Amino acid sequence: YTNVKKLKSKVSGVTLNQGKAKKLKITQIYAEKNKKIVKHMRALTYTTSDKKVATVTSKGVIKAKGTGSCYINITAHNGVNTRVKVIVK
Fold it and tell me: Quick check: 48 and 70 in contact, CB under 8 A?
């Protein structure tokens, strides 16, 4: 088994209107290509920096709540992380 070396997002930022939603697509790049990730470890964790602007589900679906901007932080089981900026109009 192996660990996650890097998380890659297809977009660096997302702009949404209030009430809209969008699913993030995150690619995990493993430290060793021929090995798999440990199955009993948790999947990616998604958190928001401001719940008043946008929320995010455990599956990576962003829901726009109020006008402003925030970041969605994505963390792998071994602490490797990335973030995506969200702007809500």
Answer: yes
Q: Please say whether the dihedral angle defined by the alpha carbons of residues 70, 7, 27 and 10, taken in this order, is positive or negative.
A: positive
**pLDDT tens profile 52-65:** 999 999 999 999 99
Q: Name the region of 79 (left: φ>0; alpha: ψ -120 to 50; beta: rest).
A: left
Q: E strands of the chain, at which residues?
A: 4-9, 13-16, 21-23, 26-30, 45-48, 54-56, 61-64, 68-75, 81-88
Nearest to 28 by CA among 49, 50, 47, 6: 6
In this prediction the pTM is: 0.88
Q: In this structure, are residues 62 and 54 in contact, taking their beta carbons and an 8 Å threshold?
A: yes
Return d(Cα 64, Cα 67) in angstroms, integer: 8
